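REVIEWER CHECKLIST
Item 1: Sequence provided? yes
Item 2: Single chain? yes
Item 3: Sequence as submitted:
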Amino acid sequence: MFQLVGYDEVFNGEVAGLWKKASGADESGDAHGISRVVAIMGPQSSGKSTIMNRLFGTDFFTMDEDQGRYQVTQGIWIGFDRNTGTAVIDLEGTDSRERGEDAATFERKSALFALAISEVLIINLWTQDVGRLNASNMLLLRTVLEQDLVLFHDKKSAPLRTKLLFLFRDHDMATPVPQLSNVMNEDLQGIWKQITEGTVHSESQLDEFFDLQFYALPHKVLMPNEFDAACLELRANFQKEDMFKKSYDRQLSLDGFPVFAAGVWETIRRDRELDLPAQRELVAVVRCDEFKREALEAAEEGLAVVKEAISTDDDTKLAAVGGDIVEIVSRAFEVFDENAQRYPEKASSKRAELEASLYALGTGIFDLHADKVMRQLLEAFGARLKSLTSWNGFGKDLEGFVTTATDKFDSLCATNVDYLEPEYQGKREQLSSSIELQARRWRDAAVKSSLQQLQLHYGSSFAPPCAAILDAAAKHVDDVWALVAQLSHKTYRTVKDEASTRFAAEGLALPPDVERSAMNSLKLNCDEETLRQIHGLIGSPSLFLTRVKQCFFDQFRNDANGLPRVWGPDDDITEAYERALEVSVAVANALSHVNRFDLDEPEEIKGSVKHFDDECYMEQIKASLQKEAEAAFAESKRSQEQMKAQMMGIQGQLPVWLVAALILLGFDEAVWVLKNPLLLILCVVLTAVGYVGYVLNIHVFLRDRFRRDMNSVLLRTKRALDQIAPDAPAADASVSSSISMN
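Item 4: Structure as written out by the authors:
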């Protein structure tokens, strides 16, 4: 990097040597890889050097913002990007206070030099300056284009083309780039038409000499990530072939660049017409700029006081903010108009610039004010929402909250000033949207909580009676799911009525579409809760097996009245076994598939869901049931056979002579009993009880119970003896013998 033209407008005499060193040229001066030239122009301190460093990896000096705003680039500098083969020219910024009134001459010379020598000329300007005359360098561009035609273009030869790349800085995304481009394009076309009228180029078009391209960069400080991304994108565009067309080529071997650049600069310096702008225009521009700056400074001081008032919570001061802004802006216009009336040729354009700046300042303060009020109102609104502890009456409460917030916003921010009215309306709509968003969030949370509560209520009301239905499935195996459907329908209807009350106008006041969606969600939740409860009640494979086994034993071991069954010698155990097994298998099959039904229409079956995804579970359960049933059947059969054998043994053990002896010897006692009515009745009753006990096999039950009780007593006795005399084997043997005999 080195300086081409000094601050004193003198071309650097050591350019040839510096060119070789900086560009990497060999002894012959051939700059290997350097094949194109890019230049940049624009206002001082607008970030020209910074953007060139970003795009081409150069190291131009940049401003230290901590030191304030000052002139960094003086004269014309050049750097190199060897990766892309580009020579990069950085011009001194326009409108610099360091050069003062002499700035216009050098600005025109340096801009014309860059336009003539570069293939792509970047015009760096602020986005807010688009459409302005001086701020966007339109006067400078007009003079440069006009002189470029005179000095460097011959009508007889093909036009020397250049790409003008307009770089919109600090683009805030508010105005689309195409609109900004159209404004700039229209201004350039108007300038071109004026400068070519009555010349040999009157029939020529601007696009015969220049290609126009427009690009926007976000704010470097406020939007750093977007700025970096845009710089990378633009850098990539410069590496594409279509950025530098063949028609841009200056037909120059770049080893002769120092001589060519020096010749161009001298041509520009000798054209004295370029150094004589209209004196009155210059004076008018400078003075009107001073008046504009004074008016802006006065307005900024006044608005600073208003800004301090915004930081307070005093409603009286906040309500006066809009009027204070209007008064300060009006006073600034009065100051400018009084001073600038002596320069009518520039007063109107400068007043337009002042108007844009003042309106921007006033709008910015009003935005702060409206944001402060809106933030306070939203905080108060949120606190009121949090104070609501019930869904009852939410609709009416919400309407009152909204009215209070909007009325207070109007009282503190309402204005009828044209340039503030759009901001006021926009903030009011933003407040309404934020309030609606908060209310919707609270309402959605209340709806969600209500749905959860209603689902829990449904589940707690549905589960106990459903469990009773499933436990008694053997009694109504064919209608078990119909009973469950009726139960779910009845429970859902109760929950649905409660939901309708909550969602109605007296409650949450849900809009019709939201209410429909909530009711659909409730139905879906209750449907899922139904399946969850049923699956939970039926249980895992082990619990399912326990259920069907219990069903079998209830059917097999109990009679029709539910009483324990004692098998008599003539009972048909096989029939009871087959019936109990059939019922148990039917219950298992019924509960293995859970029927789904419409909660509003319980008769409508929507299908069924397998309780177990794997069919192997059911096969294992049925096999286990069959095994347990067969074991119970075998045990009952064995008990019945033992009873029959005992009865036959008792009958065979009584000889005939013993029976005759009992009758002969007991004849007197029998006559005595027959003569005594009480004894006769007692004997009849005892005989009847004995017969019933015999038929029901109660004697077997009593015998088994007696044995168990005796065994328990003997075991406790044995433990007691062991504690008293652990070394008494005779006692252990005696007790053990008694236990084995029992």
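Item 5: Key structural point noted by reviewer: The longest helix spans residues 421-471.
Item 6: Recommendation: ____
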